[in-house]
Predict the structure.
Amino acid sequence: MASSSSRKSRIRVPGSANHCQAAFARRPVRRVQGPIVLGAVGVSLSLHGWFSSGLEFTIGWPALAGTPLIGTVVLLIVVALTLRTAGRPRGAWTAIVGAVVMVPVAALAISSLPDGPLFSAPAPVVVAFSALPAVIGWLLPEKRVSRWFNGPEAAHHDDEAWLRRLDGVLRGAYGLSPRQAQAHVEEARAHLAASGGEAHEQFGPPQVYALRLADGPGASRRESRRKLRSGLLFLPVVAIALSEVIDDPDPGSLSTWVLPPAALLWAWFLWGHHRDTRSS
């Protein structure tokens, strides 16, 4: 009896979905991380090219064709992360497979195209264009973008679809382990079996109910882990930029003096979030 009452105390009973939806609406506005990271990477690479090559970029066929192809790879990765956050792991894996397939396609296209300049573009224009994804990501709240990727609400009358979405949101959006997410799913399934009601009527939308379940012990630690993973997306760019500075240091180049402190600041950012995952 004690375990049964304890389980029921963690289950949101009918009639309380409005309270949970109000809490969902009041949560802090979170920005879409993927485009922000993409824009920051593009700006970093553009600034590095500006500092090392001068005020104008020479554009050839490899750059003209390779940029959109590489951008497609990055976009598919961003879509995969967004679908995972929306609780749609199958869609996320489909986007990841698409990104993996596009990598050799982009490499083949870039290597097979002839070299030679086509036109020049001012470096400030390239930097501004590279910053567009970050601006879009900052202006779009994560809740709105998540609604675009939530897909059809088949879970309104399908309890198993609702439970699968709950499992995906708990793991993708809030960083719960598979064991923790499955435990919440089994508790909800047991409650539905005992009450005879539908999941959407009992608990509301799975995204809203997942917020209620995730808002407890360990929430700040999971949020720090999420930020740590986002910061690690910069690792390839930092490694490439630093390797160029180390291989050919130029005391007269601004990048020689800017990139190492920027890398240290990035490492300090990662260390802070790593420390929070341990202490929160």
Summary: The first strand starts at residue 56 and ends at 60. The chain has a mean pLDDT of 77.
